[in-house]
Amino acid sequence: MSYIQLNIQQAYALQQMKMGYNCFLTGPGGVGKSFIIDIFVKWAKIKYKSNPKAVAVTSTTGISALLINGITLHSFAGVGFGEESVNRLLKKINKKYATKMRWKFIKVLVIDEISMLNPILFKKIEKIARVMKGNDIPFGGIQIILSGDFAQLPAVKSLKFCFETSKWNKCIDKTLYLTEIVRQKNKIFQQCLNEIRLGKVTSQTIDILKSRVGVKLKNDYNIEPTRLYSLKHHVNIINNDRLQILINEDNVHKTYKSKTKVVKNLKNLNEKYLKNMMDKNCQCIDNLIISIGSQVMIIANNLTEKIVNGSRGIVTEFIGESPKVRLLDGREIVILPHLWEYNKNDEVVVTKQQLPLRLAWAMSIHKSQGSSIDYAEIDLGLSIFEVGQAYVALSRVRTLDGLSIINFHEQSLKTHPKVIEFYSKLIPCNQLIKNSLDLISH
C-alpha cells in the first residue's frame, strides 16, 4: 500500500493510528481527515483479514456515514436514539444476535463527525463497550479513532461537547491535530479561515471578507455560484423558483426517479427498513427534475472524468435521456447514473441508483458540511444562528476567487468559547514532529 500522497503531518497521524493508540484526529476543514481514515481502515482490514467484523467505520449522521462508506454509530451500537438508560440499552442489544456479534468481534471502531455526537450518548456507548467486551479499560479495549472538528457544527440539542466529559481524556491516548490545509491552496485564504475557526478574527481578515461582499462571480460558461444559506426553507424556495422559471420558458426538462434495491436481506432488518434507511441518508435526489439551463452540482466523484464531488456546472442539452453538463473549466460531459452502496461487514446490502446531480442555485450550510465547492455565494447575515455555521460555509469554498458574500455581519463569525479554549491547549502535529526530531538530534 503506497502512501506517497501523504504530507508529513498526515503520515505521522497514520503512524500513530497504526501503532494501536486510541486517537482523536482533528483539524480544520480540508486537512485530509477523511483521506487518512480511508487509508487506515484499508490497512486495518488487511491486518484483521481473518475477522471480517473487526473494523467498524461509523459516523454520527446518515449522510456522513454514506460519504465514508460506513454506517451510523447508532446502528452499529444497536442503541437506536440512545435515550434510555445504559441498562435498558444493554438489554436491547443482548436481544439481537447480530448486534451482540458486532460487539463481540469488534477490534477497531472509527467514529467520524465526533463533534455532532451528544456527549451523554458518548458516555453511554463507552460504558456499553466495556460491558459487552467484559473489560473495564476505556471502550473495553477496542481501539477507537475519533475524527472531526469541534469548531464546525455541534451536536443537536446539546449544550456540551464530548471533550467536556470525564471519559474523554481517559479514552484518548493521542490527539492528532492536523494544521496543513490541502483544500485551499491560497495562504491568505487559509489564514482567514484559521482565524474564523478559532474566534481570533483580525481586522485584516474582516477587510478580506468585506472585499468579497457583493462580488459578481463571472465566468465564460454561464455558471452561477451556489448560494449557501443557514435555513433549508430558503434553499428550497430558491431552487424551485429558478427551476420553474426555466420550465415556464419552455426549456426542455426531464424527470429522473431514483431506484433503491435491497441486494442482501439481513435477518434482523426487513426490506422496507433498509430501503427507508438508504432513502433517508443518501445525498441523491429521489425525484430529480432538471431543465436545460439548470445550475447543478455533481454529488459523486468520477475518477474517469477527473471530477470531484462538489463540482459546479450548467445543463446545456440532453443526449437521449442523459443531461450534458458544462463545467467551470469549460469541459462538457454527459452525466450517467451513479450507484450508491450501503455496506455491512464488507457486503453490499442496499444500492441506490440516480443521476449524481442536484439543483445548485442554493444549498444549506448543514448539507455542505464535508463537501468542497468551487463557486459559492454565502449569506453571512443575521440568519446565521449557530456557532461554527459561518466557518463551515466559508471553508467549503476552494478559493477566494470563487467566493462572494452577501449580508455580511461580523457577529455571524461565531465560535463557541469552550471550543476556543479546548483547541488552544492542543499541540499541533507539526510541533509534535519537531519535538520528536529535536529529541533524536540530541
TrEMBL record:
GO terms for molecular function: DNA helicase activity. Pfam families: PIF1. InterPro entries: DNA_helicase_pif1-like_DEAD, P-loop_NTPase, PIF1_helicase. CDD domains: DEXSc_Pif1_like, SF1_C_RecD. Residues 7-204 form the DNA helicase Pif1-like DEAD-box helicase domain. It comes from marine metagenome. One of its GO terms (biological process) is telomere maintenance. This is DNA helicase Pif1-like DEAD-box helicase domain-containing protein.
